[in-house]
Amino acid sequence: MHGTAASQPNSSGDDKPDCPRKLDAAASPPSMRRPNPHSYTLLVTNLETEPQWSGNECASAMSAATSTKCASRWVTRIIPVIITSTSGYATYVIIAYLGVDYLYRTRHEHGTAIATITIYLFFYLLTIATYLRTFLKIKEDPGLVPLGPQAQLPDSNSKRRRKDGDLESQPYFTGPDQNPDSPGLEDFYSRDVFVCENDGRPKWCSECRTWKPDRAHHSSEIERCVRKMDHYCPWVGGMVSETCQ
Fold first, then answer.
1. Is residue 165 domain-shared with residue 240, that is, in the same domain?
2. pLDDT digits (tens, 9 = 90+) for 165-222
3. Is 220 left (phi over 0), alpha (psi -120 to 50) or beta?
4. How far apart are alpha carbons 152 and 28 in whole angstroms?
5. Could you tell me which of 29, 1, 241, 42 has the C-alpha nearest to residue 137?
6. What is the pLDDT of residues 59-88, one digit of tens each?
7. Which spans are transmembrane here (predicted)?
8. Digit-coded pLDDT (tens) for 82-96
9. Which residue spans within 82-223 are E strands per DSSP?
10. Does residue 174 form part of some domain?
11. Max Cα–Cα distance, the chain, nearest Å
């Protein structure tokens, strides 16, 4: 007998000596695993906690949103007419009844009548000029971001189906354009600073299929991206944005 130890049989009952095996990454202890920077816990949690919408609920929600947009557009058309009519009637009352009939003809206060009419017309013309400038600028150029080459504008048929809550009429949203020569990227890379995502690319709008400039947002009211979008104002008949500042 020599001093070498005999190999012990392994646990499987074979007479072959135990050989070192390569550790499986999934079976390795936690201390030996490489930490994964992308955790899926949040994703799984969100999927578990997010409410599940049925087809009828989605159709009802989209129909309600479409009805709200339709109501906003009608209010946008009506309010400027109301403002114009009200201001015109107020001007007629102040000039004709107060200035001419009452002060000038009845009380014979000619200086007071002329001063009242002059001061009122001065501020009224300034107000009208400011309002008309904003109103016409919004109608002429609301500051829309150009659509991407793959964007599809909904036709009248798809708009009607979307209003009725048809799920198939809703646009299909895709991720950003992965083409390094995508139209519009060169304009961003020529700047010194621009707002970007984690991958270094600008923000992408899936509905307009285009790269969004800084401070541009997508408006659900007009279904377009708007530069420096502030809010949709029915009092001035449209979107308050970069062009009317």
1. yes
2. 554 545 555 667 666 667 777 778 788 778 888 887 888 888 888 889 888 999 988 8
3. alpha
4. 51
5. 241
6. 555 555 566 777 888 888 899 899 999 999
7. 78-100, 112-132
8. 999 999 999 999 999
9. 203-205, 210-212, 216-219
10. yes
11. 142
Which residues span the domain enclosing 120?
A: 69-140
Among 140, 173, 198, the domain-final residue is 140
Residues 160 and 239 in one domain: yes
Q: Into how many domains does the chain fold?
A: 2
- Same domain? For 186 and 211 the reply is yes
Do 130 and 169 lie in a common domain?
no
Q: What is the pTM of this model?
A: 0.56
Q: Tell me which of 140, 164, 191 is where a domain ends.
A: 140
For residue 208, give the nearest of 216, 198, 197, 200 by alpha carbon.
Answer: 216
Pairing of strands 203-205, 210-212: antiparallel
User: Which residues are within 8 A (CB) of 172 and not within 5 positions of it... i.e. 6 or more apart?
Assistant: none
User: What residues pair up with 196 in beta bridges, in sequence order?
Assistant: 202
In this structure, how many other beta carbons lie within 10 angstroms of the beta carbon of residue 188?
18
Q: What does the buried/exposed string (b/e) look like for 71-88 if buried means 16 or more CB atoms within 10 Å of the residue's CB?
A: eeeeebeeebeeeeeeee
- Read out DSSP for 129-183? HHHHHHHHHHHH---BPPPPTT-----HHHHHHHHTT-GGGSPPP------TT-T
Strand, helix or coil for residue 88: helix
Query: 245 pLDDT band (50/70/90 cuts)?
Result: confident
Q: Name the one residue in this structure whose structure tokens are 């008949």.
A: 237
The two structure tokens encoding residue 155? 């036709």
Neighbours of 2 (CB within 10 A): 4
| β-bridge mates for residue 240, sequence order | 231
